[in-house]
Amino acid sequence: ARYEQGLQAGAGDRFAEPGLRNALGFLRLRRGEHEEAARQFEARLKLAAIFVQRDAEALARVGLGDVRLATGDRESARQMYAAAAETLRRGVPTLRCIAIQRLGRLALGESRLDEAAAHFAEMLAINRQMGNPPCEAEAQAGIADIALARNDLDAADVAARQVIQIAEQFREAVPNLES
Question: Three-state SS across the chain?
Answer without folding.
Answer: CHHHHHHHHHCCCCCHHHHHHHHHHHHHHHCCCHHHHHHHHHHHHHHHHCCCCHHHHHHHHHHHHHHHHHCCCHHHHHHHHHHHHHHHHHCCHHHHHHHHHHHHHHHHHCCCHHHHHHHHHHHHHHHHHHCCHHHHHHHHHHHHHHHHHCCCHHHHHHHHHHHHHHHHHHHHHHHHHHC
